[in-house]
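Data deposition worksheet. Section B asks for the primary sequence of the deposited chain exactly as it was used as input, without tags or linkers unless they were present during the calculation. Section C holds the resulting structure in token form. Section D is free text for depositor observations; keep each observation to a single sentence. Incomplete worksheets are returned to the depositor.
Section A, Depositor: J.P.
Section B:
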Amino acid sequence: MPGYLDQYGVGEEERNRIVIRSAVAIIVAVCVAALAWYLFKNQHQQNVVKTFLKAVRSGNYQGAYRDWGCDVSKSCSAYSFKTFMSDWGPNAANGGAPDPSVLGLSDAESCNNGVLLTVAVNHTRTEALWVDKGNDAISYAPYPICPHKSPFSIMIHRTVGVLRKPFLK
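Section C:
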């Protein structure tokens, strides 16, 4: 004859296994979502600079100047087309002409209201570009590294930021 407590806790192990698996699945999903957000949060600004670099690589300097946020017919007051060509044209004086085999993004870092992007121009020259998040205007970066970043943010960028490199190409 079965006792009063013979069936006590029979389904407890299965219930515990379900709870643990659910908790682990939620934690993994949150971690994957956070990593994906971190890797792709600057994707739009990266694409703006990639379009600019593609125009420079193909020799479409007027299109590249437009991607910069200026126009040949109405040039930017602080950055004329002549200055643009001396920086990005085939006879660039500032550190050498862009090398199409090297020209590309090498780093991207979100910074206040913009994104700081490092561009490898040739074997000896890198440029820090700034893309404003509000209007997608490209300019030279106002500072070499993002100011006012916490040590934790810097550590995350230096460690997890390495995973972003394949998406920059």
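Section D:
Residues 8-40 form one domain.
The mean pLDDT is 87.
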